[in-house]
Write a structure and sequence with these properties.
heterodimer; A: alpha/beta; Elastase, domain 1; Neutral Protease, domain 2; 2 domains; five-stranded mixed beta sheet; two-stranded antiparallel ribbon; B: alpha+beta; 2 helices; binds zinc ion
């Protein structure tokens, strides 16, 4: 573990090479370490074992095993058990929303793709609500999902949005499959795939076709005081909010606007707008329920062992096309829709 | 590579603190705060260095995964007359209270 990380952590290898040439001795040493780190990322080691320490027993196939805890505004996990599988509603909105939303997400992955939970083997779904004081975030920590109540000024509680709960569960699925490294383009893909399965869960729950859905991530999460519809828009990245306090949604929708930044692990929540829009375009061009064909292609790609954990957009795009052709045929409308979607957002697929 | 001590930070050092990541990551919420050593008293520089020292043992290289927030400390300084730069990243759960305070409220005056 290296406490200091040179800026080079987020910059491309050619720049690292220059630092090795010109930098101070210490910079050179660190740049070399970073290069080694980058190189170590190349081969996909396959799914990491999820490291649940005292994991509850998995559920039976087709049956979720949910455990909702209450952090009681502290930041300790998992907190006090409030509702386990099969137990009645508690009357605590956050507890019951988390329980329902995790059940909906489990059901979506099972019904649509025959996937039995996060690891495909019935991994228990552990969620903690009321995490922290006015905490404006939700996350997956490698073992469980965690939801804050929001500050009430900008954000409402994060369990209100099914697609956000599903987004966090999807991070667990990604971790146990392609394990896309959470920086730069592979990180933005990690984020985008979580958004994709987040909104697909919601569309499946509502029985919506691609053309009926709002394609928003975190709809209803912002309070009335904020000028905005959601955290992100997959249909129109960059249009989710425009507010005096929050600023304007900075997500790009095309490669020409790709953001190079050292913030947010290289803009993983920003540049995800580009693959997000590609998915939206493919799904709406194919038509019908988005989880059936576009979603299936993305799911197949996520499980494809040829997807390296440091994949960039072009590599991922190429594999979605390969998967579309394999499942639906070389000249299929699905394969054409996928190819055109990536072209429209400016991602060139390697021939 | 296992650097657990701060580099020498001269009066031209600039420190940028921000909180990054999260499912609701929005650039404005990172609330970056810049501290220029040239504007600081000796006491204040000491205050900043004390906070940075506390961050070193809890800093991690790979942070932010799956929407876990983290604090990012960027140091720009000169070393052997060359501009030099470091980034320290600390998972939110492990962030020292002093770092959170410094990010939120800035330096104590006086
Ligand atoms: Zn995420």
């Amino acid at each position: 573990m290296t406490p200091f990380r040179p800026v080079a952590g987020f910059i491309p290898p050619y720049l690292l090479d220059r630092i090795i040439e010109r930098g101070s001795e210490r910079q050179r040493a660190c740049a070399r370490g970073t290069l080694q780190h980058v190189r170590q990322l190349r081969p996909n080691p396959g799914p990491p074992g999820l490291q649940a320490r005292q994991a509850p027993a998995p559920g039976r196939p087709g049956q979720p095993q949910r455990h909702i805890h209450d952090a009681e505004q502290r930041m300790e996990l998992p907190g006090v058990p409030r509702r386990s599988e099969g137990q009645a509603e508690t009357g605590d909105a956050a507890v019951d929303e988390a329980y329902e939303a995790l059940g909906d997400t489990y059901r979506f992955f099972w019904d649509a793709y025959g996937r039995d939970s996060i690891d495909g083997r019935g991994f228990a779904l552990i969620g903690t609500v009321h995490y922290g004081d006015g905490y404006e975030n939700a996350f997956w920590n490698g073992e469980q999902m965690v939801f804050g109540d929001g500050d009430g000024e900008i954000f409402q509680r994060f369990t209100r949005a099914l697609e956000v709960v599903a987004h966090e569960l999807a991070h667990g699925v990604i971790e146990s499959e392609a394990a896309l490294v959470y920086v730069n383009q592979s990180g933005a893909l990690n984020e985008s795939i979580s958004d994709v399965f987040g909104v697909l869960t919601k569309q499946y729950r509502l029985g919506q076709r691609a053309d009926q859905a709002d394609w928003l991530v975190g709809a209803g999460l912002l309070t009335e005081r904020v000028r905005g519809r959601a955290l992100r828009s997959m249909a129109e990245p960059g249009s989710a909010y425009d507010d005096p306090l929050l600023g304007r949604d900075p997500q790009p929708a095309h490669m020409r606007d790709f953001i190079v930044t050292r913030d947010d692990n290289g803009g993983v929540h920003l540049n995800s707008g580009i693959p997000n829009r590609a998915f939206y375009l493919a799904a709406t061009a194919i038509g019908g329920p988005a989880w059936e064909r576009a979603g299936r292609i993305w799911y197949d790609t996520l499980l494809d062992r040829r997807l390296p954990n440091d994949a960039d957009f072009a590599t991922f795009a190429g594999l979605t096309l390969t998967q579309a052709r394999a499942r639906f045929g070389d000249a299929s409308a699905e394969a054409r829709a996928v190819a055109e979607a990536w072209q429209t957002v400016g991602v060139e697929i390697d021939p | 590579m296992n650097q657990r001590t701060l580099p020498p930070l001269g009066p031209d050092t600039v420190v940028r603190l921000s909180r990054q990541g999260g499912v609701a990551a929005m650039p404005r919420l990172a609330a970056p705060r810049e501290i220029q050593f040239s504007d600081c008293s000796e006491d204040q520089r000491g205050q900043v260095c004390a906070v940075l020292e506390r961050c070193l043992p809890v800093a991690e290289r790979a942070v932010g995964g799956a929407d876990q927030r983290f604090f990012q400390v960027e140091l720009r300084y000169r070393e052997a007359n060359q501009p030099s730069e470091w980034i320290i990243t600390v998972p939110e759960q492990r962030a020292p209270g002093e770092l959170v305070e410094l990010w939120k409220r800035g330096l104590r005056t006086g």
